[in-house]
Specification:
By secondary structure, this protein is α/β, with parallel strands linked by helices. Helices cover 41% and strands 16% of the residues. The relative contact order is 0.14.
């Protein structure tokens, strides 16, 4: 029997971390042939050439699609999308996959799915139906949903939202967040091994910080990140681990500020373009809190019953565990969030935290579904109307 060719697209370190176990499952499947297309930040020296990690993990990359220009302005990213469209057209024509698997809501994914649509390649989309009202990713995510044919959501509410967008219920599967599989399946590093791996000693208190620009706001990145740095400077006996911003609009501003801060505070702070999934996940249980506006603070961190301080609007709208503290990007609000995090009342509440994104196992379930779901005629979609009566 001919194996079903499944092409997995990845453009960022974080996205690859979420796809890792699914890629493992596909590779091991007797019914599927894994294809890998790498693009975006993976291929950039500025962002750590993280495609090398994919190869070190034993995967063969079938195609590299260069699309990232050396500009994080609106014009630069738009031009990057145009370059990507050309590259994906060639890649998909050569690989001729039976199914394209994508995750999330980044502009690289939008371009790849647009190309697949024109090439008549069915698309399976992971993490659809979510809200991030401060980001252009919100529109991108829902657009990807409408160009996709199988949907793997992380909660029932997100499933309902995908169906509300007109997708057929029998093509929508709530299997939870695939990031939980990393927590369950990776052999996490103990404190001493983690410190050795990052060449940095943890302190009495420790924070993991990831802050991205908010793409639907104009020129706020520098001001907001400055406010965060001011409050971080007020924390006593606290060591700081920064992971750098993505190739979003104005992300380079944040990364330059991180470099400047670490150079002046090397006794208590360190920074990484990419920690990699093992070191990142290993860091979380060693932290007093995870700070910033990364989706990992919403999706994965609650499984460790570790607090998340979620700053600003980047993740606004996502379902959250009780371990997440929302605040505005002002000094006063961030300072108040830290006071809440360290309070005895909040610390006691952490004991009963349940992660709404599940307990793991989604990678295996997604693999089983894409192995068996009939693809004949799947490209012709009929709009599912909700019954309003």
């Amino acid at each position: 029997m001919t194996k079903r060719r499944v092409c997995v697209l990845t453009g960022t370190r974080a996205e690859y971390g979420l796809l890792f176990w699914l890629m493992k499952e596909i590779y091991a499947s007797k019914d599927l042939e894994l294809q890998i297309v790498v693009t975006g930040m993976h291929l950039s020296s500025e962002f750590g050439r993280t495609y090398q990690q994919i190869e070190e993990d034993g995967f063969m990359i079938n195609k590299k699609v260069e699309m990232l220009l050396s500009s994080d302005t609106e014009v630069g990213i738009t031009k990057s999308m145009g370059v990507g469209m050309i590259g994906f057209a060639d890649a998909f024509s050569e690989l001729n996959p039976d199914l394209l698997v994508v995750l999330g809501d980044r502009f690289e994914v939008f371009v790849a799915v647009s190309s697949a649509m024109i090439s008549k390649i069915p698309v399976a989309h992971i993490h659809g139906g979510e809200l991030t009202e401060g980001l252009i990713d919100e529109s991108i995510r829902h657009s990807i949903t409408k160009m996709s044919h199988l949907h793997f959501t992380a909660t029932e509410e997100y499933s309902r939202r995908v169906i509300q967008l007109g997708e057929q219920p029998n093509r929508v599967f709530n299997f939870g967040g695939p990031g939980i599989d990393n927590i369950n399946r990776l052999p996490l590093l103990m404190r001493d091994k983690f410190e050795e791996s990052i060449d940095f000693q943890l302190g009495i208190k420790n924070l993991l910080i990831t802050f991205h620009s908010v793409t639907l706001e104009n020129s706020t990145a520098e001001e907001q990140f400055n406010n965060l740095l001011q409050v971080l400077d007020e924390q006593q006996d606290t060591h700081l681990i920064f992971t750098k911003s993505n190739a979003d609009t104005h992300g380079r501003i944040i990364n330059k500020m991180i470099d400047n801060y670490v150079s002046m505070n090397s006794n208590k702070a360190t920074a990484f373009t990419s920690l990699g999934q093992l070191r990142y996940i290993s860091a979380i249980p060693l932290m007093d809190g995870v700070v910033g506006n990364s989706s990992s603070g919403i999706h994965e961190v609650p499984s460790f019953k570790v607090p998340t301080i979620n700053i600003g609007d980047r993740q606004r709208g996502r379902i959250q565990a009780n371990s997440v503290i929302d605040c505005n990007p002002s000094v006063k609000s961030i300072r108040s969030a830290f006071a809440t995090m360290y309070s005895e009342t909040f610390q006691k509440k952490l004991i009963g935290v349940v992660n709404p994104y599940g307990e793991g196992g989604s990678s295996e379930k997604i693999c089983n579904t894409i192995s068996t779901f009939p693809l004949d005629g799947i490209l012709k979609k009929s709009f599912y109307n909700l019954d309003y009566k």
